[in-house]
Write a structure and sequence with these properties.
- The complex is a heterodimer of chains A (about 270) and B (about 450).
- With about 270 residues, chain A is of the alpha/beta class.
- Chain A is built from 10 helices and 10 strands.
- In chain A, the strands form 2 sheets. A 6-stranded mixed sheet of chain A has the order 6-7-8-3-9-10, sandwiched between helices.
- In chain A, a hairpin with a 2-residue loop joins strand 4 and strand 5.
- In chain A, helix 4 crosses helix 5, helix 4 runs parallel beside helix 6 and helix 6 runs parallel beside helix 7.
- The N and C termini of chain A lie close together (about 5 Å).
- The relative contact order of chain A is 0.19.
- Chain B has 3 domains: about 35 residues, no CATH class; about 220 residues, MetI-like fold, CATH 1.10.3720.10; about 60 residues, no CATH class.
- Chain B is an all-alpha fold and about 450 residues long.
- Chain B is built from 17 helices and 2 strands.
- The mean pLDDT of chain B is about 90.
- The chains are: A alpha/beta (about 270), B mainly alpha (about 450).
């Protein structure tokens, strides 16, 4: 990967708001998950503090997507505990819906609703889940569409937008629910190189405002600049985690060294 | 590599090309014909053979159609007129049968002085479906649509107005139960009560209530029994009722078949497979004969209503499978995105999944509807007088004994008009719902 594609912002990052508080946002302890008999997540322990920007990387099949999908119960874990914002994830549907409306998520393939306009995509959940009046929901939506710099596309349909624009709409759609935590599941891996930057810029801006973020990505430039912690996973386990500086300069485990040499080595 | 070649490899564009118009093809009838009809030897041959076949078919049917005799009292009179005017060996249709018997073909034995009632019901029907079919019609019209089934029922069968009113009250009851219970008791319990309460009301209270009200204020028009219904009106009533009732039932069955809840899943699968695996005609015989054994003695459950129920269940099983195809073709990401935003099951189905799945399923759904509508002619076998049944009845009279084609052409034409309209509407809908590139 070349530096121009991965280096998201040419400007200096404003870290003044990016303070990490000691309030716990997500607590995962001793969590295990199986697909059938395949042990996909093994003994995961992870505490995320409010305001943290965590980048999760690792080879494909290492369970990194599954891990963040467990946080809003798109995947069900079989043992251990996940506590999000003080609410424990159990099979109680009320808890799940509560957590899902507090946790925003962006997907690799955006998953915008193709039969609705951009504006309707953004107002749908506030109107139907939060019971926000339509007019107010539209104002909120326009606010966030301005923030991701595509207010002029509000009345188009997702199919008429480029991939980068669609992903920014997806971010705006999540933000309209005023989430306290954002999950990103490889948000740039389905994008053309020219569009990666516009999405990363939006994510950086979000980080600057102090959003708690968990991001599965291979954008190492983004990890260096924005993350306060990088987690490396392999075979369903957390192999190594550290501050980005130390993680990239002096990886400790051999598996991490091999992985980093493979993705940065050309 | 030579030097000249090396020079051509390096290239820098100094001005970007502006957008240009595509070349204008020379259009015109002759070019079109040359390209589409006479582009090669095989194509020329096919064109000529096709033209010959079309000419041959038309030259045999058109004289029969256009020589047709419109004024005659019987088939033999038709023949006499033909012999006198265009000769005994010329072919000529005897359209006079339609002039003589069209009322029967349309209305069966419905009392002649009351024809205005089914006609008014048809007008109400067209007004009522307008806001459902076309989004440009004001939304307020939907209130009229909701009331129209009761108005149409009253117009067609007559009797006391209080009967359809008390039936309608059952729906109000169910809705009220839903609104009252959903926030307190949760979706599932509220739904069960909202379905069970009206059913109990209809079975035990609705009838007596209507009779009581009728005694207080009499609001009756002449009652017409189902046996008098017939002709195209009968096909239309069964077909439309089946279409309108089978769509929601089919959607619920499709959702049931996708459900993770074991019991609901198995019930849906069993229902769909059993209904679909048995011919419709068997179900119709079941409706007309067997059902009487299961009902308590003395209950007179209207045959037409039984047929409507059977046709509805039959079509619903097919629609369920078509809708399931639509549901399965949606990417998993749509379900996940709806979940991730915190939408509950019913909201995500109603707002995200079904609008897309139904759009994909439109051709299949309309296909099922067209099939259902034409299958209403099968009721002739259980003694209902649909157009085919009436054509037999007409032939049984002395005047029109031996007339086949004219009646079948007429019946076929009526069915074709209805089915072709449905097909055109589905194309219109597909085009209207197209969004962007994907």
């Amino acid at each position: 990967m070349t530096d121009t594609a991965t280096n998201p912002a040419d400007r200096a990052i404003d870290r003044s708001h990016m303070r990490v508080s000691d309030e716990v946002a997500i607590e995962i302890s001793n969590m295990n998950k199986w697909y059938g008999s395949f042990h996909v997540l093994r003994d995961i322990d992870l505490t995320v503090y409010r305001g943290e920007r965590i980048v999760i990387c690792g080879p494909s099949g290492s369970g990194k997507s599954t891990l963040i999908r467990c946080i809003n119960r798109l995947e069900e874990h079989q043992s251990g505990r996940i506590v999000v914002d003080g609410t424990e994830l159990s099979s109680d549907l009320k808890n799940i819906d509560k957590i899902r409306s507090e946790v925003g998520m962006c997907f690799q393939h955006f998953n915008l609703f193709p039969h609705l306009t951009i504006l309707e995509n953004c107002t749908l959940a506030p109107i139907w889940v939060r019971k926000t009046p339509k007019k107010e929901a539209e104002e909120i939506a326009m606010h966030f569409l301005k923030k991701v710099k595509i207010p002029e596309q509000a009345n188009k349909y997702p199919g008429q937008l480029s991939g980068g624009q669609q992903q920014r709409v997806a971010i705006a759609r999540s933000l309209c629910m005023k989430p306290r935590i954002m999950l990103f599941d490889e948000p740039t891996s389905a994008l053309d190189p020219e569009m990666i930057k516009e999405v990363l810029d939006t994510m950086i801006e979000l980080a600057e405002e102090g959003m708690t973020m968990l991001c599965v990505t291979h954008e190492m430039g983004f990890a260096r600049q924005v993350a306060n912690r990088v987690i490396f996973m392999d075979q369903g386990q957390i192999v190594e985690q550290n501050e980005p500086e130390a993680f990239f300069k002096a990886p400790k485990s051999d598996r991490t060294k091999l992985f980093l040499s493979q993705i940065l080595g050309h | 590599m030579s030097d000249t070649h090396a020079q051509t490899v390096s290239f820098v564009r100094d001005t970007m090309l502006p957008e240009a118009e595509p070349p204008v093809g020379n259009r015109g009838a002759i070019l079109w014909m040359r390209e589409n009809l006479f582009s090669g030897w095989l194509n020329i041959l096919m064109t000529l053979v096709s033209l010959y076949v079309i000419w041959w078919a038309l030259s045999h049917t058109m004289p029969w159609v256009f020589n047709g005799i419109w004024n005659a009292g019987s088939l033999s009179e038709c023949r006499e007129i033909r012999n006198a005017t265009i000769g005994a060996d010329a072919s000529a249709a005897c359209w006079a049968v339609l002039g003589d018997r069209w009322q029967q073909l349309m209305f069966g034995f419905y009392p002649r002085e009351l024809y205005w009632r089914p006609i008014l019901a048809l007008v109400i029907f067209f007004v009522a479906i307008a806001p459902v079919l076309f989004s440009r019609v004001p939304r307020g019209m939907l209130a009229f649509t909701a009331l129209s089934p009761f108005a149409m029922f009253w117009l067609l069968w007559g009797g006391s107005l209080w009967f359809p009113v008390s039936i309608a009250l059952g729906f109000v009851l169910g809705w009220a139960a839903w609104r009252a219970l959903a926030p307190i008791a949760g979706t599932l319990i509220a739904m069960i009560v909202a379905v069970a309460l009206p059913l109990i009301y209809w079975f035990y209270t609705a009838g007596p209530l209507a009779r009581e009200l009728e005694q207080v204020i009499a609001l009756s028009i002449e009652y017409v029994p189902s046996q008098d219904f017939g002709g195209f009106m009968l096909s239309f009533i069964i077909g439309i009722a089946g279409i309108i009732l089978s769509l929601p039932l089919g959607i619920l069955l499709a959702l049931g078949r996708q459900s993770d809840l074991f019991i609901i899943n198995k019930i849906s699968v069993g229902f769909i497979e059993i209904i679909r695996g048995v011919p419709l005609i068997v179900w119709l015989f079941t409706a007309s004969l067997l059902l009487n054994y299961f009902l308590p003695p003395g209950t007179n459950f209207d045959l037409m209503l039984r047929v409507i129920i059977m046709v509805t269940l039959f079509a619903a099983a097919y629609i369920a499978e078509v809708v399931r195809g639509g549901l399965a073709s949606l990417p998993k990401g749509q379900y996940e995105a709806a979940d991730a935003l915190g939408l509950d099951y019913w909201k995500s189905m109603r707002l995200i999944i079904l609008p897309q799945a139904l759009k994909i399923a439109i051709p299949g759904i309309v296909n099922t509807f067209i099939g259902l509508f034409k299958d209403t002619t099968l009721v002739v076998f259980i003694g209902l007088l649909d157009p085919i049944g009436l054509s037999n009845a007409i032939r049984a009279s002395a005047e029109w004994n031996g007339i086949y084609w004219e009646l079948f052409v007429f019946i076929g034409l009526l069915f074709f008009i209805c089915c072709f309209s449905m097909s055109r509407y589905s194309l219109y809908l597909e085009k209207k719902l197209q969004r962007g590139h994907h």
